[in-house]
Specification:
Layout (H helix, E strand, L loop, with lengths): L4 H9 L5 E2 L7 H10 L1 E7 L3 E2 L10 E2 L5 H8 L9 E8 L2 E9 L3 E9 L5 E3 L3 E5 L11 E5 L2 H9 L1 H25 L5 E5 L3 H9 L8 E5 L20 E5 L2 E4 L5 E4 L2 E3 L1 E7 L36
Parallel strand pairs: 1-8, 2-5, 2-12, 13-17
Antiparallel strand pairs: 3-4, 5-6, 6-7, 7-8, 7-9, 9-10, 11-12, 13-16, 14-15
Helix pairs in contact: 1-2, 4-5
Amino acid sequence: MTLKVHNLIEQLTRPTNKIMLPPVAIDLPGMAKLYADAEKFIFENIPLELNPEPPDGVRTYSAPQLSDDEISFWRTKSIPLPAPSVCYEYSFDDVHFFVLIRDTDRGWDIVWFEQDKLGDICSLLIAPRALYKVPEDDDVLVAVEVVLPESMSQAAQANPEYSRRFQQTAYGIVHIAIYLTLMLSSKSTERTKEIPPPKLLKKRAANGRTPLYAHTIVNITPDRFLDRGESQGGTHASPRLHWRRSHLRRYENGRHVVIPRCLVGRADLGEVTHEYHVSPRRSGVSNRQQSVETFPMGGSGSDPGDCA
């Protein structure tokens, strides 16, 4: 998979008829700079699956659940972003996604752009904010503010179904953002740093093109865990392939560190799924005109243990 954020930045800087935005004033150069300054990651696979189409024809997807502990870790700022602002890229169902996340005192501010297979860029029209603090009278595990353009906000107020879908989409985006950030630090996740060749950068600069950016390629489910017959450092008594759940490691000096869920065991012995599914190379989310399923935010996790 090839990093494509430079295409988005180029179109935000020099808008064309290929970029479709909501009917409100947006600081496009400012948005382009935010994406340019963010640390960039491209995810080669994300274990998401499209759900069977419901009667109303709206396609949705399912993602691995976040456990109660993982949500608690995030709310206490124990699952921090790897940089003050990040851009996560991934693809699914012929659509490429650019998720910009910025950390604030209140929580995470998120912007989501998508690119279809024809190269058209459009905004999802929603910029959710995930809040660290949940209102006392609210029973949700993650409080999410949905920021909508005025015209979309009026439509949501007039039609409860619109409001429900906007809220579902916002929760889905926040869920993905937390999950990807958690998995960046998993012991079983593979990360490879890519730096563009200086000669290519010089050529693009001479032609007035947006530069290519250094980025990290992330593989959440490496092929080595899916190849039958390969042991993951165990013995003949190694367990079947499964996810070891996230947990908190506390040190005597009072410091504590989140140890994210990770893959352990042997694929040739089968798979123990619980609610964490081990899937081959697939990635992304539902495409344009699709909403996001409401994800269950609880869960008991998988096998306990220590990944580090």
